Amino acid sequence: MPSLEFSRGPSVWNSIDGLAYGGDYNPEQWPEDIRLEDIELMKEAGVNLLSVAIFSWGLLEPVEGQYDFGWLDEVMDNLAAAGIKVALATATASPPAWLAKKYPEILPVTADGTTLERGSRRHYTPSSSVYRRYATTMTRVIAERYKDHPALALWHVDNELGCHVSEFHGAEDVEAFRRWLERRYGSIDALNESWGTAFWSQHYASFEEIIPPGMAPTMLNPGQQLDFARFSSWAFMDYYRALLAVIRDVTPNVPATTNFMVSSATKALDYFDWAKNMDVVANDHYLVAADPERTIELAFSADLTRGVAGGEPWMLMEHSTSAVNWQPHNQPKMPGEMLRNSLQHVARGADAVMFFQWRQSKAGSEKFHSAMVPHGGRDTQVWRNVVELGAALSTLDSVKGSRVESQVAIVFDYEAWWASELDSHPSNSLKYLETMRAFHRSLYLRGVTADFVHPSADLSGYKVVLVCTLHAVTDAAAASIAAAAEAGATVLISYFSGVVDERDHVRLGGYPGAFRELLGIRTEEFHPLFPGSSVTLSDGTVGSLWSEHVHVGASTEVLATFTDYPLDGVPALTRRAVGAGSAWYLATLPDADGIDALTDRLLAEAGVTSAAEASAGVELTRRRAADGRSFLFAVNHSREDATVKADGDELLSGLRFSGVVPAGAVAVIAEDQPA
Fold this sequence. Notes:
Largest sheet: 9 strands, parallel
Distance between the termini: 59 Å
Number of strands: 29
Strand order of the largest sheet: 5-4-3-2-1-9-8-7-6
Helix content: 25-40%
C-alpha cells in the first residue's frame, strides 16, 4: 500500500469569522427537542464551529449498505441556519458491530497474540485491506452527500489515530511491515546491514522471514524496534491519506485534518512527519488533575503543537471544561482555570478553542466527562464559564493569524525519542523528555517562550538552541546545529546526544560522536547513576541520573567539574567558542536550581530577555501579526493580584491596561506600537 501524494488544500480560517469556538457535537445521542435547544444554547455561548459525526457510523449505516442520514441532514441544516460551521467527520473512528462480526480480521492483534474485540472503540488495524475498503466507502458516501452543504468548513478525518492501540501484529500488519521494509531498503542485504543482524545470528535471507518485534526470550533487535515504530506511525498516516484521497476527489476545495494528541506523554506517532499531510494542525489536550505543575505541562504541549505546525496557527480540537473521566481521580477544574487553560492555548498559537464535548452524555463510558452543557444544564458554573469564554474569545478577532514570538529553539525529534528509550541502554531510567521539560519549565518561569523544532528545521533565527538527549541524529541535522553555533547562536547539547546515527549505529571514536568536534570534547565512558543517587559539581550544582568521563580539547573551557569519586575533577559542563557563537555541553541532569542557573547563563550570553516584567506566577507569551502589531498574553495563575509592565489596550475588558492582572485572571494587551 504505497503512500498517496499530498497537496495542501485551502485554509480553514477563511470560512470562520474570528477565533473558532465549539467542540465535539454528538446529536445522535439526543432527541429532536434537545437538538433544537442546543442551537439556542450555542448561539448564547457564541459557538461558531462544531465537530460532528465522529462516532456515528453504527447509526448512519446500521445494516451493511443501508444508510440513514435523516438525523444528520436535519442537524447540518439547523447548524447552517444558525451560522455555525461544521468540521464533518468521516465517521470511521469506531467500526459498527456488523462489520467487526462479518470481518473479524479487521480487529487489532497485540504482540502476545491477543485479539482486541468490539465493545469499545478504535477496534481496527489501519493495515486491514477490508477495513480500508469499508472506511473509504463510508467516507465517499458522506463526502458526496454533504459536499455542497453550506455548513461544511472542514473535514475531520477519523479521530485520535494511534490512541489506545498504536502497534499491530495481525497477519496483514506483518505483511504490510515486510512490504514497507522492502520499499525502505530495496534489498535484504541493506536491511541486514542497517539492523546489524550479524549479532546473535539474526541474519535474514528474505523479507518473508521478518516479523514485527514481539514476545521474545530477551532483548529485541534495536534496529528492528526502531523501524517498527517508524512503520507503525506510517501505517496510520497511510490510512489517513487513503481517506484524504477520497475527500480530495469529492471536495478538493474543503480543507481536512485529524486531531493529534501532542503532549508530554504521547510518542507513538511522528507528528512532525504527519503535519506535512495536514491542511491545518489540530490537537487534543487534557490536563492531569493531580499534576501540581499542569499549567507548565499545558504550555509544553501547546508549544510542541505549534512546533509541529511549523509556527502556523493551529486548532485546539479538544480539551475539557472541567473534570475528565479516565484518570484515577477526576477532580474538576478550579475557579477560572478553564478560561486560563483556553487562553494559554491561544497565547501559544491556537486560533481555535474546542472541547469534548458540547453536551455531557447521559449514558456510555464518558458520561462523567465534563462538557460545555453539563448534566445540570444552564444553572451551573460550568455553563457560565462556557458563556464567559465565548465572550472573551469574541474580543480577540485581531489576534487571529498572528504568530508566537520566540528567540529560543528546543530541538525535538520523535525518532530520537524512540531510539533513546530502547532497551539495552546504559540506564533504563533515562527518559527523552526529562531534560527538555526541565529547561522548558525554567524558560516558562522566566517569561521566555520556546519553539520546538525538528532537527531538519532552519535554526538561523534563534539566539539559543537547546539540544536535549538527541540520542539519534543524522549527519545533516548535526551539521545544521553546528552551523547555528557558527552563525552566532548559543547552543547547549546535553548528555546521551549524538551517540548513534539514524540506524541506531554507534558513532565510533568516542561520544557524543555527531557533536564531538563541535563541542571539543570526547567521552570515553558513561557513568549512569542509580535511582536516588546524585553527584555534586564544583559550582554547587547537584546532578542526578547521569554522569560520564569527559575529556576536553585545548579550545574548550571547563565551567564545572564533577567532585565525586571516581569522576572527581572530570568536566561536567563545558563551553567552546564557535564562530560567532558557542557550543556548551552538559554531562548530567541538574536539579531545578542548577537548571535555572544554567538557563540564566545561556539567556544572558545570548541576550534573550522575558517578554515583559511581571510578578511571580504570571505566564507571559507574545504573538505578533504580520503588520507588526503585538499582543502580550499575561495569565495570572496565582491567587494574588499581579503586576505586568506593559502599555496598551486590554482586549478582554476593552479598557486601557492598568498594569494589574487580578488573581486568577488573564489580560491580553494590544501593545502600543513605537511612533
